[in-house]
From TrEMBL:
<keyword id="KW-0221">Differentiation</keyword>
<keyword id="KW-0012">Acyltransferase</keyword>
<keyword id="KW-0276">Fatty acid metabolism</keyword>
<keyword id="KW-0594">Phospholipid biosynthesis</keyword>
<keyword id="KW-0443">Lipid metabolism</keyword>
<keyword id="KW-0808">Transferase</keyword>
<keyword id="KW-0551">Lipid droplet</keyword>
<dbReference type="GO" id="GO:0030154">
    <property type="term" value="P:cell differentiation"/>
</dbReference>
<dbReference type="GO" id="GO:0008654">
    <property type="term" value="P:phospholipid biosynthetic process"/>
</dbReference>
<protein>
    <recommendedName>
        <fullName>1-acylglycerol-3-phosphate O-acyltransferase ABHD5</fullName>
        <ecNumber>2.3.1.51</ecNumber>
    </recommendedName>
</protein>
<feature type="domain" description="AB hydrolase-1">
    <location>
        <begin position="113"/>
        <end position="205"/>
    </location>
</feature>
<dbReference type="GO" id="GO:0003841">
    <property type="term" value="F:1-acylglycerol-3-phosphate O-acyltransferase activity"/>
</dbReference>
<dbReference type="GO" id="GO:0005811">
    <property type="term" value="C:lipid droplet"/>
</dbReference>
<comment type="similarity">
    <text>Belongs to the peptidase S33 family. ABHD4/ABHD5 subfamily.</text>
</comment>
<keyword id="KW-0444">Lipid biosynthesis</keyword>
<keyword id="KW-1208">Phospholipid metabolism</keyword>
<dbReference type="GO" id="GO:0006631">
    <property type="term" value="P:fatty acid metabolic process"/>
</dbReference>
Length: 224
């Protein structure tokens, strides 16, 4: 709201500017002292506040407790295109956090399993168009990183290195809980960064994904 401006002195007015300004301000602000005008100003202020906060109310409903149900429904819709059978469950970590995990072709465990790490703001659903081809010859696991999808929302350190380490350690703990000796990490966006960070810290537990045929790599680039 803008402050009221006093009217200008008329051309040719004989009264000096100082006295005219004082007189004008008294006359201009006098109505503001009335009860009716006061209520009007309050109503305008309330409307102004509602307008400014409109953006806040517009997205608040998306973060109500039912969002978990909406997330499940959205994920189910994304995975409807998959005809292969798969397992889905929470993997619980020692610190109480849980990681939402999908497993395809668990009977093909003789080969090193492939583990998919999604990108920032994503989840297991982003791999929906890739699962069936990738799980033809080996077991494939995909999980929601902590802080994303249906996994837990822990507090992350504000220091970048510490936050990175939290992600890496959660992946390592997930590996132990899944009983995997080694795994091939394939990541997209943030997932690619974390795959590299994990491999640097635990080189004996990860294998490079260069063994994939070009057809698979091209398919992933197109569908993701």
């Amino acid at each position: 709201m803008f402050p009221p401006v006093a009217p200008c002195c008329p051309v040719g007015h004989t009264e000096d500017m100082g006295s005219f300004k004082k007189s004008s301000e008294r006359n201009f602000f006098k109505p503001l002292h009335s009860a009716e005008c006061g209520r009007h100003v309050q109503e305008l202020y309330v409307l102004y506040c509602c307008y400014r906060l409109g953006w806040l109310f517009s997205w608040l409903p998306a973060w109500c407790p039912t969002s978990l149900l909406h997330l499940k429904e959205a994920e189910d819709k994304m995975l409807k295109c998959i005809t292969s059978t798969y397992n889905k469950r929470y993997v619980y970590l020692a610190n109480g956090n849980k990681i939402w995990t999908l497993t395809f072709s668990p009977d093909l465990s003789r080969k090193t399993p492939l583990v998919l790490l999604h990108g920032f703001g994503g989840g297991v659903g982003m791999w929906a168009l890739n699962f069936e081809e990738l799980c033809e010859n080996r077991t494939v696991h995909a999980f929601d990183l902590l802080g994303f999808g249906r996994s837990s929302r822990p507090h992350f350190d504000t220091d970048a290195r510490e936050a990175e380490n939290q992600f890496v350690e959660s992946i390592e703990e997930w590996r132990k809980e899944m009983g995997l000796e080694k795994m091939i990490l394939l990541g997209h966006n943030l997932g690619g960064f974390l795959a590299a960070a994990y491999s640097l810290k635990y080189p004996s537990r990860s294998k490079p994904c260069s063994a994939f045929k070009t057809r698979f790599q091209t398919k992933i680039c197109i569908d993701v």
